Amino acid sequence: MVIGTIADNLGRGIEGVTSSVSEALFEPVIRLGVTGLSRSGKTVFITSLVANLLDRERMAGLQAAQSGRIRAAFLQPQPDDTVPRFEFENHLAAITGPKPHWPESTRHVSELRLSLRVQPNGILSGFQGPRTVHLDIVDYPGEWLLDLGLLDQSYDQWAQAALAKAEDRAQAKDYLALIDGFDGAAKLAEAKALELAQSYTGYLKQAREDGYSDCTPGRFLLPGELEGSPALTFAPLPSGPSPRGSLRREFARRFEAYKSQVVKPFFRTHFARLDRQVVLVDALGAINAGPRAVEDLRQTMQGILRAFRPGRNSFLSSILGKRVERILFAATKADHLHHNQHGKLAAIMEALVRDARDRADFAGADTRAMAIAALRATVEETRDHKGVSVDMVRGTLLETGKQAAFHAGDLPSDPNAILSPARAGQGAWLEGDFNAMRFAPASLNLKPGEGPPHIRLDAAAEFLLGDRLR
Ligand code: GDP
Predict the structure, then answer these.
(1) Helices H, strands E: what count in the chain?
(2) Ligand 1, residues 49, 102, 335: which to mutate, most atoms within 8 A of Cβ?
(3) pLDDT in tens, 288-308
């Protein structure tokens, strides 16, 4: 890796800096990144957060809302003309319409600007009128964030690590069979390149679906507008000679193109400008998928934290731009659990972050872990089962449309009861089992001023934005 090429102009341009200075003086802008692996809940989170900031009755935990200092909130055209707008209205209609359904998930980066008229509460507040604070929400796939780990690897380093990972995963069986005995030094044939890339992508998709988190390269899963392009038509091959014109040589070239033309521009254009970040994690989904998925999630958290706080002298610090000040790690879909288990879910989330933070030599930004549900799809009830009362949640099942009450399993009070077997490579949980159930969004009957029901979305907003709304 050549440090010079990595560091090439990836910081912010001069124009960017001056415009942000003037904005900071007059109308402050908070750039909030919302990320997480696919289906972690980004789309639902942004939709519900914005709806609940527009109608703030359910936001008691956000001080500026509770005290009435947020006088008004309104959507505005976003500042970045070339980034697709987050389709807030369509997504909100999906969850609040007469036949509520989950909105379409994040497939690429998008943005939305919400502006708030806020009455300051400092000593001079009586002399000041309300000021405008812009909240620019940037939604992007966590898969793309994990690609950061590829930047300091050569094709061969990446390929060997990727193959070692594949060996441990049943989903990679077909791909491994395809390259078994295959000669990477053979002349490049585009049909073969495509076959390998498609098979490798198929494996990544299946692994992701089965609960694994680390499935890079991220664009293989969510290619956006790059689908089918040469920069995505490569796959890992075992080490060996790579003569000119060979498949292995071409794959190495495409891997470099992927890094320089796909990964780096994403970090420069979007990531480097964030102030605050929420990382959404489907921890329940991973627990449900088993210890291996949890261990994979733990390692993935390390990769994510690395992006937020590279060591001071790391080459990454030169491309990652300014420092993200606050990062919230939120375990989503907490409405699958009775509230007496929410603390345990938050503790597991906290343990995952702490572990990753220690290992990633992380210091600096203020981090917090929480269990939330951006859109509460269930109600709680306690039922008597063979003389024992069981805490359950009830909702409409997505598959059948029928109402059902359900107990997901008991999370342990000590997060190590989850993390240790995961780290030890255990195949299944020895004690207890966890079930996943997918609920449809409930029919809502919102009163004027009320946003959609949620769990701790207001506390999440207070941590992420509260200090900037004073
Ligand atoms: P994205 O891929 O990160 O944008 O994920 P989405 O926001 O589309 O969410 C993926 C799926 O997770 C949704 O279709 C829902 O089934 C589920 N989900 C997301 N948020 C919640 C929540 O707060 N409660 C419940 N019960 N399910 C949720």
Answers:
(1) 18, 10
(2) 102
(3) 989 988 998 988 888 787 777
